[in-house]
Predict the structure.
Amino acid sequence: MEWELHKTFVKCLISMPDSNQLYEDMEKLNALYEELCWGHDDELVFSHENGRVVIYNKTKQEKEQ
């Protein structure tokens, strides 16, 4: 699993015209985790609705039900 993630990360770096963009996006996601008090092990679900990216914390949502 770790190798697959590494290969995906490297592929993203190679295919991105601005390699710093990936790191900037990761910083934004880390800030989002902190602001919403999400754990770094929480499972996130990404989807698209009306041209927007929607992210919800599946782990937290399951605990609340």
Q: What stands out?
A: The first helix runs from residue 2 to 15. The radius of gyration is 14 Å. The chain has a mean pLDDT of 75.
